[in-house]
Input
Amino acid sequence: MPYNPNKELKKYYGIAEVAEQFGVAESLLRYWEKEFPNIKPRKSGRGVRQYTKEDIEEVRIVYNLLKVRGMKIAAAKQVLSKNKKAATDTSEIIDRLESIKAELKEISRELGEL
Output
């Protein structure tokens, strides 16, 4: 069977992996679970949180509202309740722009070496 780079290798991610991905503490993710009902990772029999790609997407939306855009929790809740689609779209745009920014920095660095 040929290698498929688009195939996801993991179905579930631990809280430590998700916290590291966003550069936040595990305790903050647990707090966000309580504040935002859309973040609901599966819990194993021993209470270990297991995040799916969809759960991570929900964390990303909350992260962008709170950490990137600097909203208070109440304001973020209001945005999500009124227009989650717009919040999701904005999060995706921010992520794409960050990716482009990193790519441009890399190109600039490589040109500087010439």
User: Anything to note?
Assistant: The chain has one domain: 15-112.
